[in-house]
Amino acid sequence: MKQFTSNPFYKFILFPIGQIIVFALGASLVLSLFTVLLAYIFRGFMTEFDLVERVLLILPQVVINGLTIGFVYSTIALGYTMVYGVLEFINFSHSEIFMVGGIVGVELMAYFDHTGALQTMNQYVIIALAILLGMVISGSLAVTVERVAYKPLRGAPRLVPLISAIGMSFFLQDAVRLILSLTTGEFNVILPNFGTFDEFLILAVPGIATPLRFQIKSILLVGVTVIMLVGLNYLVNGTKVGKAIRAVAQDRPSASLMGINVNMIISITFLIGGALGGAAGVLFALKATKLDPFVGFFPGLKAFTAAVLGGIGNLTGALLGGLILGLLESFSASYLSTFTNGAFGAEYKDIFAFAVLILVLILRPSGLLGQTVGQKA
Amino acid sequence: MKTFFSELYKKANSGFWPIFITLGLLIAGTISVYQSPRSLSAFLTLMLCPLLVYFMKINMKVKTFIGLILVIVILPVLGIRNIFYLEVIFQMAVFAALALGLNIVIGMAGLLDLGYVAFYAVGAYTWAIFGSKQLSLLHSIPGAAPAGAEFALSPNYFWLFLFLGVGLAALAGILLGLPVLRLRGDYLAIVTLGFGEVIRVLALNLDKPINLTNGPQGITPIQRPPLPPEFILSPIRNLLTPIVGHVPSEAEFYNVFFYFLALIIIMIAITVATRLEDSRIGRAWTAIREDETAAIAMGIPLVKMKLAAFAAGASFAGAMGALYAANRTFVSPETFSFLQSIGVLTMVILGGLGSIPGVIFGASAVVILNIQVLQNFSLYLSELRQSDAVIPIINFAWKDLSNQLDPAKYQKLVFGIILVVMMIFRPSGLIPAERRKRELVEDKE
Question: Strand pairing of B390-391 and B396-397?
Fold first, then answer.
């Protein structure tokens, strides 16, 4: 048995994938059961239609949508949580790193569209190139931001780097807007239409009336994020760099005494977090199809909520938190208007994430998987 | 070079020189603004006066006198002469009051509030809903107002609602603070940020099931409190007519009236802040800001004190909100965006955390930058675009400059740069508070 668990294939591939599947299924199951239960309770109040039937009708689709966006949130949340683990501060500009990744990816595809390569090249190659470019640009941007705006402030009182990060976030939003509007004349970028990503895979499951519809890009999105999550798990838990990152997160002075180049490790952390954010941005662009420089704000806020929900500083927690938050958003967007008979609709889904954040902070400030965080001065 | 300037400063700041220089600048500024109401440099000259008054070594009584003359007589008169300055000084007063409120939360108690504008919105919507026809439109669709709708309350109720706005904003602050103030600072930042967005989303969407906020279109018209009675107004009008060159209209009187109201709120904010600073509560706040654990050990009721700071800051925003709604006679959700919160934060940071003169300076500087300097720069650029001028060395024709390059639209960029640069080079602000200076400059940890 011991031989089996120390087998790298098990440890770095099978186990994390299993974990992801368990989290995804578990979270969807709990939320679905809760919603159905609510539907049974409130069934009597609705006279025009059968609430339970209506809830069950779209439930599978809602779960799928929620998981798709949940994986994006998880990937962004990892960036927040890694930086928090190492530097203990909220990297406000991470939502802009995410936005830059998305815009760079879309611009690359628009460039391919312009040169005509979009129709001739394999669509998966294009997506892979866009994600790679997004990762490279976002990663290096994150490192630059760290060098410029955070590094001079190390050791300053807590509020100082936080305010600097907010300033950086604002700066990046308008800088991207300025660059886009100077070069293209407008600051929205629109994903060119190509490939078969918008088509649906239809899966008829016996026993369910409506067949399940998977959009191809949803499957692609989930697949890519799972690969990245597994890769990150290997990087953090299986390599020397990962060991150094964990050491710096645990105790920075001691780590530097042990011969770890702390500044280097912090830069690497920002690089990894930024690259993940950039990839998430490209994937998000696939789903949203239209981006502007201010698009990062809400996903950023939600991903941070996800990181807190899972226990900030905890990588597994960020994954779980992201999935839960994505599902919650999808459930609230789809069912709020059904349950309140149209009085409140999908426009309140953003508030839901915030309500979750407050509840978590009241009930379990350390998050679902986190250890108790003491008041560090 | 440096010694030369410091010598010059020393010389200028001793004996009778300070009074001469200050009065000279004051008179020169007043005359130049009076003569050329459109010139930006004239206005900036005048705006330098308060700074000089603050920095120069002058007898405290004389200082106060000059300051009062400036804000009570000169600014309103110049404002009536050129309606645009009235707008500028009114905005300066509004934002100075907001920044003073936020300064209590961030500067004194060290709690980072990123959704400060939410409390402003609470105050504004309180008077907007009750002071407009909205109450009789609760069941109609936004935009389709029936003709017979009437104002629910008489405009005199504004005074009551000014206090109600204060109370409600403070209540909102306490309700928001209760769950999160037990936690460390950065959680508070993100929760207040979220709260600011929640208030905006609510204002945007509460046009159904009952039409409370009229949705994205906003509420208008909102009533204004009545002006002082005619027997007070008419002598002032007679006095001002020859000075400003025209008979001041009711709208101009209203703007001056609101400016004075804002000034009163600023005075209250300054009094409260200075009185609090060295009181028991103020010292408790400083202790919490510096080290929470030690503060608890000293027997400071942590949550209570933080809540007090939060409520005090929020109440000023509530008052200004009600005032703003009445002044504009219009509120819409877009006024209360995240950008506004960060704008107020920028003012506090630029001037100096915890420093009352600093914060007022910061508010004035950012407002002038926003609605004067950037606008003028935009105008200048568009003029250049019209002309045939060419940048000599790189041979770039101004005509080719993109239309998108419009500095007035890039507030976020400016705020962002100010925040980052201030944090890196001068975290204690341009006019630091004495105590803060020692804390932030000395090495920590």
Answer: antiparallel
